[in-house]
Every structure is written in C-alpha cells, then in structure tokens.
Write a structure and sequence with these properties.
about 280 residues, 8-stranded parallel barrel, 8 strands
Length: about 280
C-alpha cells in the first residue's frame, strides 16, 4: 500500500494540533477520573484515551457526556484487550465498549497488545471488520515491533493511523521510529514523561529554565518535535494544564540533540517484568 491513504487518514487526526495532545485515563476510575477529565476539558484537551483493560470506559463515557463538548469535537481512542481477540468476542467487546462510552463509534480503535501466540493476523482482521461496520473511524495498533508493523501493513487493506508505544527522552526508540517512518505509520506515546523519571534528570530542568517550562513540558515538547503525539495523565489541575501548554515554544536543534543523549539510558518502563506478555521490543 502506498503512503497516500496513510497520509490522508493521519492528516484527519494526528496532524491536528488539538489532537496531538491526548489525555490518558490509566489507571484512573471513579471520582478521580471524573475530576481529571473535567479539568482536562477545561484547559482544552479534546482527545481522550481509554481501553478495555483499564476498566474505566464507562466512567470515561460518563465524564465526557457531562462535559458538554460536542462529539464532533472529540477524538476518542480505546483498545481491545487480548482476551477479546477471538472471532466470537472481538466485535461484541467493541460494541460493549461503545455502550460504556455512550457513543456509536470511536475515532481510533487499537489492538492493545500483540497476542501471546505471536499470530497478529486474526486480531487485525477483526479490527478491520470493526471499522467496516462503522464502530470506529480509524484503526491502529499498540506495542507492535517493526516486524509486526510490516506484517500488519500486508494484512490490512486500510491505513494504520498509529502504533501507540512507550516513548520518552529516556528510551532509545530509533529502530522503531525508522521502521514506522518507512511504513508511514505515526507513533503515539504512552509513559510520555517516564512516570515522573524526567524530573530526576537535571538536564531537562536546566533546559526548561531557558524556555520558562518544566522538565515535563520539555520532555513532551521533545516528543512532539520527534513527530510523535503524546498521551499524558495527571489528576492535578495545574499539571493537567501544564501538560497541555506545550505548543507555544520550539526546542532548538541544539537542545533537541542534548536531550537525544538521554535516550542512551534505554530506561524502559513497560518491560516483561511488568508485562510478561510483552513482545521482544526493538
């Protein structure tokens, strides 16, 4: 498949400034989630990320329904967990997700993890069926390696609008980025501030002083300038606002290169000790 269809699909979501910053909902639920989404909406977030595995699709739907934001102004992503990859359960589970979210479709539907047996074809075929049935506008993957992305492009007849992966300045994702770029598949970042580890790296704070920004804002801006959309979560209104406020400055090439050096640490958070079912990442 040529890059034309990919670029057309990607332009509809991930190149829009309002959707380059997504509010993540893991591991929130209940009142904490309702309050966080309310604060996120107030500062301008319009893209929201949830998943079956998080167990909070219903609370996310409740919060978004109460927000007063029109559905056409939202970009909603959810993910199908591996337990629902069978032909009998996949589409049924997506329909339940939509019921919980109080929506007739999501904007992006992802497979959350590659299946344990390594055969990605069946779940990808079900993912495409979900799109064909109008349950989602676009489809994508998460935690896929380069080899898996190459296979996915061969299996699917429709564009993959993203591969959601761990991405932050403390992890070297050069191989994955090179492979994704060659296929025309944009990356989107989870653990975008390395679960707070960025605050323990003096360089990011030092660079932040030059721009009047925090270490987290510098890390997020670095990711955006790599061409990767960010997915961030906080329950504190001040931090939620700061995570959104990253579009009014540009890191210089020199500062980007300085931050690039931090990736040599290869500090991966989501590894097999945390997720035994994780693939052998690139």
């Amino acid at each position: 498949m040529g890059l034309g269809p990919y670029l057309e699909a990607v332009m509809s979501i991930y190149y829009q400034k309002s959707f380059q910053r997504s509010f993540g909902t893991f591991p929130l639920n209940g009142d904490a989630l309702l309050g966080a989404i309310d604060a996120a909406v107030q500062v301008g977030f319009r893209a929201f990320d949830t998943a079956q595995m998080y167990g909070n699709e219903a609370a996310t739907g409740e919060a978004l329904a109460a927000s007063g934001i029109g559905r056409q102004d939202l970009c909603i992503t959810t993910k199908v967990m591996a337990e629902n990859f069978s032909d009998a359960r996949f589409l049924v589970s997506v329909e339940q997700s939509l019921k919980d979210l109080r929506m007739d479709h999501v904007d992006v539907l992802l497979v959350h993890w590659p299946p344990a047996d390594g055969d990605i074809t069946p779940s990808l075929q079900q993912l495409q069926k979900a799109q064909e049935r109008g349950l989602t506008r676009h489809i994508g993957v998460s935690n896929y390696t380069v080899t898996m992305m190459q296979k996915a492009v061969q299996v699917l007849d429709v564009p993959i609008v993203t591969n959601q992966v761990e991405f932050h300045p403390l992890l070297d994702q050069t191989v994955l980025m090179k492979g994704a770029n060659a296929l025309g598949i944009p990356l989107s970042a989870y653990c975008a501030i390395a679960r707070g580890e960025v605050f323990r790296r003096p360089l990011l704070s030092e660079i932040g002083l030059e721009y009047g920004k925090s270490a987290a804002q510098i890390a997020l801006r670095w990711t955006l300038q790599k061409g990767v959309s960010v997915n961030v979560m906080s329950t504190r209104p001040a931090n939620i606002a700061a995570n959104f406020d990253i579009m009014d400055f540009t890191l210089s090439n020199v500062d980007m290169a300085r931050i690039d050096e931090l990736t040599r640490e290869n500090h991966r958070i989501v590894n097999k000790s945390l997720a035994p079912f994780a693939p052998d990442f690139d």
